[in-house]
Amino acid sequence: MGQKIKIAGWISVGVLAGALTTVSLQTLARGGMTPLPLEEIQQLSAVFGLIKTDYVEPVSDKKLITDAISGMVSSLDPHSQYFDKKSYKEFKEGTSGKFVGVGIEITMEDGLIKIVSPIEGSPAFRAGLKTGDLITKIDDTAVKGLSLNDAVKRMRGEPNTKVRLNILRKDESRSFPVTITREEIKTQSVKGKVIEPGYAWIRLSQFQERTVDDFVRKVEEIYKQDPKLKGLVLDLRNDPGGLLDAAVAISAAFLPPDVTVVSTNGQLAESKSTYKASPEFYAQRGSGDPLQRLPAALKKLPLVVLVNEGSASASEIVAGALQDHKRATIMGSQSFGKGSVQTVRPLGPDTALKLTTARYYTPSGKSIQAKGIVPDLMVDETAEGNLYAALGMREADLEKHLSSGQGTEVKNEALEKAREEARKRLEEEAKKPISERRLPEFGTDKDFQLQQALNQLKGQPVKISKTLTERKTEEKSEDSAGSDKKSDDKKPTDKK
């Protein structure tokens, strides 16, 4: 019996080696690279065979091969990833702005799920759920102790299936159940309003397939409400990014035609490109240019862009382009620094590989990677200061992060000290009532950074941070100066 298991194991090894050979040949045909090293392939095959024959309990071929692929990809950088069937589906939902669920934006509060906002027209909206409602149970599962992700997964499901939520409505001092039928939800990545006569605020929470159309509709609404607009605040705080073509389009909405928005550089020829403020770089095939509907006045409208340490990738592309072309004043705190391009390569109908293929560069040739966008005006998140920003993670803090390619990384020794001080402040704040310790919601009259942005547009004094400074993670060297020029000359881009 044992001999049969060993034979079966080594047959599986043969299958694995054959699969790897196929990948190797495909790689050769694609990029002219040298074949994979035979000795390392033999070691991998040997480990595969030993696990199949000697491990304490049987392990499927599929699991071993999938885990080997995942390990190989995850060793590269924090953003390269192997998508199995489930994670690939979730990824596509995230970029499309569509999912099946009840239609609410949520957050955690005291271990319960708090509804930030029901999405207009969604099943939750029609069921009468309100901002501030607390969810205490999902079907028969108590929410207390669940993570936010676990709660989201339980509320999502297949179309036309039902989920029962127990709701606690504090302002009415009552608790009640509601049964909601799941359906496809289209998320809103764009919010906006006229803050006061002459001044408007538009917030992008993510760059999705529908973001550009939603942005155009929101601008049209604002101009209809106030045709004599004097200034606009574009809010990209905590925007993690998304689709590159959406970022190029939002930049093009404010920039002159055909100027450079962003460039990329990588090994592949397709990774060495320049994206410009032109429809051919952002308009979806057959759908025309949605920016044609925008008021002409938008091109000259005074503009402030808000960013913080949660602004990453596509939002950094927009901020960097508008900053380099001197089209907007960038305010807030230094952005995340995710300046790398990920390309998704399908491996089959249900699986794919998300691989880092290039670095992003602003129009002036500066790498965003592990550096981020440094605001023109540093502004704290509250009137009391930037109390907890040091606790936020940036690209440069991630293990195995890609360097910018434009300098030698240096250790930021002051950062850990700042984090320790922020942790102590957070512990003290946690003892206060929730209403006193929670940061104000973006877009409200208590939003300190937004108020400073409005002051900037009006030509009034702005309260500049006394504590925020540029967080430098790299220093230039003579060798890196040559690297800068090389990257700039090649005018690197991406397909996503």
UniProtKB/TrEMBL annotation:
Region spans: Disordered: 421-496
Pfam families per the UniProt record, alphabetical: CtpB_N-like, PDZ_2, Peptidase_S41
Entries under InterPro entries matching the protein: ClpP/crotonase-like_dom_sf (IPR029045), CtpA/B_N (IPR055210), PDZ (IPR001478), PDZ_sf (IPR036034), Peptidase_S41A (IPR004447), Tail-specific_protease (IPR005151)
Biased composition (Basic and acidic residues): 421-448, 468-496
Bias (Polar residues) ranges: 449-458
Keywords: Hydrolase, Protease, Serine protease
Domain PDZ, first and last residues per copy: 88-156
Family statement: Belongs to the peptidase S41A family.
Protein name per Swiss-Prot or TrEMBL: S41 family peptidase
